[in-house]
Write a structure and sequence with these properties.
Rossmann fold; 6-stranded parallel sheet; alpha/beta; 419 residues
Length: 419
C-alpha cells in the first residue's frame, strides 16, 4: 500500500473506480438490518472495482476480510474518546483508504479520527445523530417524539422515558448529537435512507444541502409475477418482538379477522418472546391459528413471503425506511404498515398497500380484510409493488447513486479542523 506521501487521498475529480473505501460499523455480522445492507453492498461495489475494507467494534472476523477490529467503535462514553481516536487513527494509517464510509458507530472519537484523515461519508441508518435516545420514541407512552435535541430532552425523559436513566450515558448521547450538528459540514456528504429521515435531521439542525436521500435496495430479486395467493389466507409479521415494533397489534388484528385467516410471527428469537406472543394470542382468541417461530435466515425469507397474503408492518417508532417491506413488495405481497418515518416511500397508500395509524389494531384488521376479500385488488397491489421495486429499489439503482456521491465527496477538499 502506498504511503500518504506517495499519493493523495482520493484525488479531487477522480472517478471512484479503483478506489479503496473503509467502511466503519459497530458489528461484523450478518444479523442486523445495517449489516445485511452493508454486506450486500460490498460485493456490488467490488463489481464496480471498488475495494472495501471494514473497521468494526465486535463480531466474527470470518464474516468478511479484510477487516480491522477497533473495539472503541462500540463504546459510548467520554472516557473512551481518546483511545478511540488513537486506535482509529492507527487503523487509517494502515489501510490508507481513499474514502471513509461511516455506518453505525457509538464513539465520537472514531468519527473525529476519520474526519481528520480524509473525505468521509456518513449514512444515517438510525437517528443517533439527531436524537439522544436514537429512536424518537417515548417508551412509557409508546408515542413518536417530535422534538429536536435540546435540554428539554432530559426533563421529557423523566415523564415519558426515552433516554437511558444512567446520567453518564445520557449526557454522552446528548453531546454526540450536539457535536454532530456542529460538525456536520465537515462530512464530505451525508446519506439518509429516506426523505423522511433527511427531514428529521434537517429539522434538528443539519444543513439540507449536505444530505442526499438514498433508499436501501432490496437484495431479493423481484419475481416476474406476484406469487400464487395462499389458501387459506395468511398474514405475516417479520421482525423483533420489541416494545417499539408493535407485534402485539398484529396479534390483536389477527384476533379481529375471520377464523379462516391464519397468522405467522417470524422473529421471536428467545423462548420468552415466543411465550409473550402466545400470551397475546390467548388474550385475543387466535392462538389456534397463529404460528410463532424464531429468526429466519436470508434464504428462508422468500419462501415465507411466497406463503403470505399480506405482510403487516405495525412499527411504533420512526423507521428510517423498513427493508422488510421492500422484500415483501419484491414477491408481490401487499403491506399494511404503520404510518411512521419513511414507510410511505414504499408503501403507497391504496397502491402497494395501506398505511394505518400506529397502535391501531382495528385499522390493521380493516385494511387487511379489504385486501383479503378482493383477490383482484391483492394481485393489482402485488403488480404495483413489483413495479416499485424494479423502478427505485434495485441494487443497480442504489449503487449508481452511491458511487455518484462517492465521486462528489472526492471532488470537494475536506476541512481538517482537528476538533
Amino acid at each position: 500500500m502506498a504511503s500518504l506521501s506517495e499519493r493523495s487521498l482520493c484525488p479531487y475529480g477522480r472517478s471512484p473506480s479503483g478506489m479503496t473505501v473503509l467502511h466503519v460499523n459497530e458489528n461484523l455480522s450478518l444479523d442486523g438490518g445495517v449489516e445485511t445492507y452493508l454486506f450486500s453492498l460490498i460485493p456490488r461495489l467490488d463489481q464496480r472495482e471498488i475495494s472495501s475494507v471494514v473497521a468494526y467494534g465486535r463480531g466474527d472476523p470470518d464474516v468478511y476480510g479484510p477487516a480491522h477490529r477497533v473495539p472503541e467503535i462500540t463504546k459510548a462514553g467520554f472516557q473512551h474518546q481518546r483511545a478511540a481516536r488513537r486506535h482509529m487513527g492507527a487503523t487509517l494509517k494502515t489501510v490508507q483508504p481513499d474514502l471513509i464510509h461511516i455506518h453505525n458507530v457509538q464513539n465520537v472519537g472514531i468519527v473525529k479520527a476519520c474526519l481528520d484523515h480524509g473525505p468521509t461519508v456518513l449514512t444515517t441508518h438510525d437517528h443517533r445523530w439527531a436524537c439522544p435516545a436514537n429512536t424518537f420514541y417515548y417508551k412509557r407512552t409508546r408515542e413518536v417524539c417530535n422534538r429536536t435535541c435540546g435540554l428539554g430532552c432530559f426533563t421529557t425523559t423523566v415523564t415519558k422515558h426515552c433516554l437511558t436513566p444512567r446520567p453518564q450515558y445520557a449526557l454522552y448521547f446528548y453531546y454526540r448529537v450536539k457535536w454532530g450538528l456542529r460538525h456536520a459540514d465537515r462530512f464530505a456528504h451525508i446519506v439518509s435512507p429516506s426523505r423522511a429521515t433527511k427531514d428529521r435531521h434537517v429539522k434538528g439542525g443539519m444543513p439540507s444541502d449536505q444530505i442526499t436521500p438514498l433508499p436501501y435496495f432490496c437484495s431479493l430479486e423481484p419475481r416476474d409475477e406476484p406469487r400464487a395467493l395462499p389458501d387459506p389466507p395468511v398474514i405475516t409479521y417479520i421482525g423483533r418482538v420489541a416494545d417499539n415494533k408493535g407485534c402485539e397489534f398484529f396479534v390483536e388484528a389477527l384476533g379481529l379477522l375471520p377464523d379462516s385467516v391464519q397468522g405467522r410471527v417470524v422473529g421471536a428469537g428467545a423462548e420468552d418472546d415466543k411465550a409473550t406472543v402466545r400470551n397475546w394470542a390467548d388474550e385475543h382468541g387466535c392462538a389456534d391459528r397463529l404460528a410463532v417461530q424464531g429468526w429466519a435466515d436470508r434464504a428462508e425469507i422468500p419462501e415465507i413471503l411466497d406463503r403470505t397474503s399480506v405482510l403487516v408492518f405495525p412499527s411504533l417508532c420512526v423507521e428510517t425506511l423498513g427493508i422488510v417491506g421492500l422484500e415483501a413488495l419484491s414477491r408481490g405481497v401487499p403491506v399494511v404498515a404503520s404510518d411512521v418515518g419513511g414507510v410511505r416511500e414504499w408503501c403507497h397508500d391504496g397502491e402497494t398497500g395501506f398505511v394505518v395509524p400506529p397502535k391501531d389494531a382495528a385499522a390493521i384488521a380493516n385494511r387487511t380484510q379489504r385486501l383479503l376479500a378482493d383477490h383482484e385488488r391483492l394481485r393489482a397491489f402485488g403488480h404495483r409493488g413489483l413495479g416499485a421495486i424494479r423502478e427505485r429499489f434495485t441494487p443497480e439503482w442504489h449503487v449508481d447513486r452511491l458511487l455518484n456521491i462517492y465521486e462528489r465527496a472526492c471532488s470537494v477538499k475536506p476541512s481538517f479542523q482537528g476538533a
